[in-house]
């Protein structure tokens, strides 16, 4: 009979779920509408926060008859709204739908108000949260015989746990690197021979730096894929190239929002990330006005979860900047593509002479200059007329210091040719900018100082 749950034929399938991943747009939209209607009715009936919000907005759930009605009538919400609602009736608060007995996982994330935001999940929602990772894993050829090294600690952050749920769902091996030093993790990677590294992009580079110090060639390890989340980078050419070269592996990214899910696994062709459209709906708005932007323009991602029934997430402003593309991707998926992944945070966007500039765009352009390293900082300051940007970036170690002036001129010219604004570049010697373990701080805002 069956020697494995997955037969040989199914292991060779290109998609984890071909039916949903390649569904034509009209059918996807029909699924969205049906699920949104169900979620709105559910939230209105079960969640005091949403009932108050929708009563104030003056509509009843049965008035949402099209996606257009949804986009037009339903107000957006923000992290601070959920945090406030949670304070009203602790520990779960008034943004939660079910009774405490159904909320089986409780995570938290830092809130913009300084208060932590509680993130409850039921087993049902956590199962789907994990499944979103599997779409990404499967798409890049990972299978149950692969083994995943978790290069992070097991704290209160939902994203890490969801990756674990994902690997369980795939049926692959888990190696936990929790609570260990970088050096011990490297040792385990050489000893256990995992085939996949899960980490933030910054930490993958920090590990590579440590390995170099110790004389370890990671390209000779068994790692063939590195999979990243937690910050942009997996889709930013410089960072990705640095990771791939150091690890001798292919690097992919998943875009998740702790309180919503691992909503967008990476495109196998590394064109960006795809919204898992069987589990979430998204639209993109101008972060200032809230008005929808044209397809292909950069704006703020607004997401509705189809699976978060513990603490429903309906039209949630993520503050993440994305460029949304709807046409079917070259990888075969009909799901929305966020081209080049997450481009930054809305509060990191700087408007210079009417042009929106965001950090990953600068990083992407600088990535074309091979003599520059992926270690950089962007400083925004108030100029006399408009905001001004300065980029500090380290040269590669083998680049001669006496030619920094030439490199600076080349980088500044390239930025001007591509974004049409003048951005000052300061070339720094290798090792002069701070290194980060988990997430890098790239953006420094001096505009309000
Ligand atoms: Zn794709």
How would you briefly describe this protein structure?
With 449 residues, the chain is α/β, with parallel strands linked by helices. Helices cover 33% and strands 23% of the residues.
Characteristic key phrases:
449 residues, alpha/beta, 5-stranded parallel beta sheet, 13 helices, 21 strands, 23% strand, binds zinc ion
Structure description:
It is a single chain. The chain is of the alpha/beta class and 449 residues long. The protein is 33% helix and 23% strand. The chain has helices at 8-11, 18-21, 25-46, 48-57, 67-73, 79-88, 123-139, 158-170, 182-192, 201-213, 237-247, 359-366, 404-419; strands spanning 105-110, 116-121, 147-150, 173-176, 196-199, 225-228, 250-253, 255-257, 261-264, 272-274, 280-285, 298-305, 316-325, 337-339, 344-345, 350-352, 355-357, 372-382, 387-395, 424-428, 443-445. The strands form 6 sheets. Strands 10, 11, 12, 13, 14 and 15 form a 6-stranded antiparallel sheet that branches. The chain has a 5-stranded parallel sheet with strand order 4-3-5-6-7, with helices on both faces. It has a 4-stranded mixed sheet with strand order 20-19-18-21. β5, α10 and β6 (225-228) form a beta-alpha-beta unit. α3 (25-46) packs across α4, α7 crosses α8 and α10 (201-213) packs across α11. It is globular, with a radius of gyration of 22 Å. The site of zinc ion (ZN) has 8 residues, from loops.
Explain the layout of strands and helices.
Layout: H1 8-11, H2 18-21, H3 25-46, H4 48-57, H5 67-73, H6 79-88, E1 105-110, E2 116-121, H7 123-139, E3 147-150, H8 158-170, E4 173-176, H9 182-192, E5 196-199, H10 201-213, E6 225-228, H11 237-247, E7 250-253, E8 255-257, E9 261-264, E10 272-274, E11 280-285, E12 298-305, E13 316-325, E14 337-339, E15 344-345, E16 350-352, E17 355-357, H12 359-366, E18 372-382, E19 387-395, H13 404-419, E20 424-428, E21 443-445
Parallel strand pairs: 3-4, 3-5, 5-6, 6-7, 18-21, 19-20
Antiparallel strand pairs: 1-2, 8-9, 10-14, 11-12, 12-13, 13-14, 13-15, 16-17, 18-19
Helix pairs in contact: 3-4, 7-8, 10-11
